[in-house]
Amino acid sequence: MSADAAMTSGAGISGTSVVRLARGVRLHEDPVRGQAVLLAPERAMALDDIAVAIVEALDGQRSLDRIVDNFAQKFDAPAADIAADVRAFVEELANRRLLEIVA
User: Which of 31, 54, 90, 100 is 20 to 30 Å from 20 by CA-CA measure?
Assistant: First the structure.
C-alpha cells in the first residue's frame, strides 16, 4: 500500500506513527461561533476541546504513543482509554486527508 493510500484510509497508523496536519490544513478559532475549527481547502471541521488538544499535539515530532503517555499523565487517566480515543480521532483525520504521516 502506498503512503498516500495509507494516509487516506487511516491504515498504517499505529502508536509509533508520527503525524502532522497536512499542508494547507490549519487550526483556527472561529470568533463568531466561539469554537475551534480545522480548516482545509474547501473543508472545515468543528472541534471540541479534546480534539483541539489532540490536533495541537500532532507536531510531526512525537509518536502517538508519546502523545498518549503525555495525556495520561496530564489528565490522570488510563493510557489505554486515551490511546483508543486518540487513534480513532487520528484515523478519522487521515480518512479525511487532513494528516500527513511523517514516520
Answer: 31
Length of the chain counted residue by residue:
103
Q: Integer distance in angstroms from the first to the last C-alpha of the chain?
A: 15
Distance CA 85, CA 50 (A): 10
Q: How far is CA 53 from CA 1, 75, 91, in A?
A: 30, 12, 16
Helices (H) and strands (E) in the chain, counts: 4, 6
pLDDT interval class at 7 (50, 70, 90): very low
99 grid coordinates: 494528516
DSSP calls for 7-45: HHH-TT--TT-EEEEPTT-EEEEETTTTEEEEEETTEEE
Cβ–Cβ < 8 Å for 92, 10 = yes
8 A C-beta contact, residue 19 and residue 60: yes
